[in-house]
Amino acid sequence: VERALVVTEAEGGPPETHVLLRGNPNLKGDRVEPGFIEVLGSPEPSLPKVESKSPTCGRRSVLANWIASPGNPLTARVMVNRIWQHHFGRGIVGSPNNFGLGGEKPTHPALLDWLASEFIHRGWSLKSMHRLLMTSEAYQRSSRGDPEQARVDPSGGLLGRFPMRRLTAEEIRDTLLVVTGTLNPKMFGPGVYVEIPQEVLAGQSIPGNGWGNSPPEEQARRSLYIFSKRSLIPPILENFDVAETDRSSPARFTTVQPTQALGLLNSEFLQREAGLLAERLRRECPKGTADLRVARALSLATARTPSRHEVERGVGLMASLQSREGVSADEALRYFCLVVLNLNELIYVD
Questions:
Q1: Is 88 found in the same domain as 61?
Q2: Is this structure's pTM higher than 0.90?
């Protein structure tokens, strides 16, 4: 029988809370009762009466209900700002962790309030807000602006054009798995341990200590489920600026480093994924010619129909590899798949 540890409240009701003088737990000051932040103009909380056999005092429920109350717009503003930041690269409020006087002012305050009210009206549905933003005109605009737009809005803050955004580290890994057809869509359950190169493990005092080895089908799950260990980060995630686990990361900063290009070309992970994509093309186009496989690979990676010129270049690359380098047709296809997985169009939202 599986057992799990849970947190519960001690018997006898909630303990008294005191102001700790100078933060010293042994120097108790005045007794205080639960309450909301006075400067926000919040009413006094209505705490439930604690019954003798009640499993909880209900204080946490009161706090949670206040945080998610329709009468508390701050929560909704902060959340929709985070969603906007994810899709557009920068929030309406540029300091997502600070909505106070020390933070930045919103660039579009009316828009922020409207999104917050919509969020509440839609039942706090994150999926609904993602759909709302991604179907908006602002999101669907091209990143290629005209000279007049550049003159009026050089920084792009007025959203006359879409600010091109690179995918996050987790999104890049998941996208590669989707293109190769190996992503495991399984949800929930325990985390997974993905394969980490021996060069990375060798940096530990005891190589591999504290890192497991999940089955291959489990390793292909979304990056969300990968165990997080500060000293052992999968290179594909570390190279593309995954959030640090020892501090708050209100925003992802996009860097451009040589290790990113080197990893996408030479890492064991990319070499393996290129081989898996080649297998998928042979499986889906068993009797297909080279141009059909090239077109299929490009459409999988770019989510569009490739141009005739793009297909001809792909076929020419494979033919050149076979004639000049003496590789087999299967190996040439794998090299072409590696090129496809290195396309900018695959990892940038344009």
A1: no
A2: no
